[in-house]
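**Backbone shape codes:**
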Amino acid sequence: MSTRMRRRMALLMTCLLAALLYGCTDERETPTVRVGVALYQQDDTFISTVVQQLEQRIKEEERARGIKINVTLADARSSQSAQNEQVDRFLDRGYDVICVNIVDRTAAAVIVDKAQAAQTPVIFFNREPVEEDLERWEGAYYVGSKAARAGQLQGGIVLDAWREDPAALDRNGDGVLQYVMLEGEPGHQDALLRTEYSIKTLMTAGVPTEKLANDTADWQRGLAAVRMQQWLERYGREIEVVFANNDDMALGAIDACLAAGMETDELPFIVGVDATPPALEALAAGTLQGTVRNDAAGQAESMTALICALLDGEDPAQAVTLEDGKYVWLEYTTVTREDLEALPAG
């Protein structure tokens, strides 16, 4: 940590101690900490869940410390240029920490350099920047999960079902698993790795597969429904499995199937990623067959711990488990209908 940042953190720590010593009833103004949170798209179901969890944990820190922590959200609406401007405003106004759910993972260098110039720590989350960009400055961190693992677990859900009852998935009895793939954004790392490793898991286990179709749906439920409707018109009941890179797209596939007149037991075997609340409802209803829990609560908790360590001028490695001094990795877990009761809250 640079001398300038240490001084900044020490000054803030003095304010925090003053708040604890004098309390809210004193004439002195309660110290205020400002945290800027820049989102790639706020109406993304998983991202909105992370934000809700983060705000909840920040409020808990406020009460525990007797200070005010203002969290300001900025929605880039999938525009990197808009997000860069939002980050500029946070830095120009002297925010103490910024958290960035980056639009374009290849664009992190600009943000890291600006944060370094302002000596403001930056925590990227859920959308992993390029490693070289994160390494540009010691005050840049990442909180998230490894995308390849999500693909492996998603493929594992299908593999387990195949091994338990191949005939239930192999509707046409040809010994081959016919599938379609709903992908996230073109070129997005999570989309690429989830797509690759979900199918690789089946192939490695010796399950014959045939891809009928694949297309991007930008993580969106509505666009996924459009894609699925087109595939149903072309392939109909030939589609045995639907892989979706996230739950919103899996739900879009379900919407299209139900709109086509399918009953719940007639739907293809549909799997997603994230374990969002709407997806868990679909899981309980039997329309979704499985998902992979992306730990929203864990991400929020790790971000809060990092924020507090940075504000206190402490070594972040004492607050969270850091890999390579930069990364906080959360574990994915498989969720099927049988797992619902044991699933942690959040």
Residues 3-145+295-331 form a domain with the Rossmann fold fold (CATH 3.40.50.2300).
